[in-house]
Amino acid sequence: MTKVTLAIENISELITVAGENAPRMGKAQGEIEKIKDGVVLVSGDKILYAGNKENAPKYEKSDDFVLIDGTGKTVTPGLIDSHTHLVHGGSRENELDMKLNGVTYLEILERGGGIMSTLRQTKEMSEDELFEQAKKSVERLISYGVTTIEAKTGYGIDDFDTEMKQLNVADRLGKELPVEIVKTFMAAHAIPEKYKSNPGEFIDIVINDYLPKIEADGRCKFCDVFCEKGVFNAEDSKRLLEAAKKHGLTPKIHADEIEEIGGTKTAADVRAISAEHLIKCSEKGVDELKEGGVIANLLPGTSFNMGDGIFAPARLMIEKGVPVAISTDYNPGSCPTENIQLCMYLACLNMKMTPAEALVGVTINAACAIDEQDKKGSLMEGKLADITIFDAPNINYVLYHFGVNHTDKVIKNGKAVYESK
Ligand SMILES: N=CN[C@@H](CCC(=O)O)C(=O)O
Ligand SMILES: [Zn+2]
């Protein structure tokens, strides 16, 4: 008999998100079973059983067996933050006054602030300093219930050494902290000064010089691009993402964040795994995502922090059968927060998603957005034992009582890695 190393019993609300290892779309995005008096059994780093008490198998305990009482608790798959700009230097609180005075995100960028300011700060910091800064964010993300983080480069752009520095830090974070970091190459995050009048020339450099190096390096799984007015157009974004595929990277795209300039069509054309932001996505854009089988990775914390009250059309996406993932977009500019529970609540409040849809957005759909669905995103036999335990009787309570951290414990690969004080 397989020995159980960890058991969670008497769970008030267990949400396994069990089902196919595929994106949930349409009605299925919100159809999750809520089990009362649930049980989760773990053996080593894998789930042995997650379900109701009646069907739970009798088990033998390992010598180091741990029992957790789930009374009054909600238990879900470990949350997955599938879009962050985790590794960066410094911060940008100096932009708050400008923003409050009506200076827009793109205007700040045009003035040499915004992403350009983080580029300078990231270049100046050593790998160790960047590690110490990002470590705090990872610890915060874990405390909010996150067990896997996608992290993008993109604060080096034409300074390839800084891109690599970000990658090294992301890699080290995954090795030294109890979290998995999935890496995305995003040198095409802003136009370098010397290519201002010809961004396509920079894209050529990324294609011909950087992508072969990134492929040889082997640590990035995805390639992303900021397809936006004043940044990279749809044509250059498409060229880059097509080339990235030839180098073994799966395409992702920041699209329709500020203006709709054809990012969703590009996403569909290149068969991107996900398109990010989509704040200004039109009905045509939603149709393109659907046709292309693209996951909409929505970032409501960013909309909230932009302060203009405009959010991605999540309801239309769900109605039209586009799977929706939710992420923090944690970065020093447009969304400086690691609070994924707040982002889930904003998805409910401002995009009219149900708590169940939001939970699917940070579990199985987020796992699909980073191609980790075979091992993560639901609590099912054989999957990794990545589990979040909330000190709340049900998931609706977690979101309703907003702005505070409800995490009680986080289990990563079968081991408790966070416990609230
Ligand atoms: N919009 C592009 N990139 C980030 C913001 C990066 C920054 O402002 O530093 C985003 O996804 O929101
Ligand atoms: Zn982003």
TrEMBL record:
It is found in: Cytoplasm. GO terms for cellular component: cytoplasm. Residues 74-417 form the Amidohydrolase-related domain. Zn(2+) binds at H83, H85, H254, D329. Pathway: Amino-acid degradation; L-histidine degradation into L-glutamate; N-formimidoyl-L-glutamate from L-histidine: step 3/3. The keyword Transcription does not apply. Keywords: Cytoplasm, Histidine metabolism, Hydrolase, Iron, Metal-binding, Zinc. Its cofactor is Zn(2+); Fe(3+). GO terms for biological process: L-histidine catabolic process to glutamate and formamide; L-histidine catabolic process to glutamate and formate. It catalyses: 4-imidazolone-5-propanoate + H2O = N-formimidoyl-L-glutamate. Binds 1 zinc or iron ion per subunit. Fe(3+) binds at H83, H85, H254, D329. InterPro entries: Amidohydro-rel, HutI, Metal-dep_hydrolase_composite, Metal_Hydrolase. 4-imidazolone-5-propanoate binds at R92, Y155, H189, E257, S334. One of its GO terms (molecular function) is zinc ion binding. The keyword Signal does not apply. N-formimidoyl-L-glutamate binds at Y155, N331, G333. Its EC number is 3.5.2.7. Its main location: cytoplasm. Catalyzes the hydrolytic cleavage of the carbon-nitrogen bond in imidazolone-5-propanoate to yield N-formimidoyl-L-glutamate. It is the third step in the universal histidine degradation pathway. Belongs to the metallo-dependent hydrolases superfamily. HutI family. PANTHER family: IMIDAZOLONEPROPIONASE, IMIDAZOLONEPROPIONASE-RELATED. This is Imidazolonepropionase.
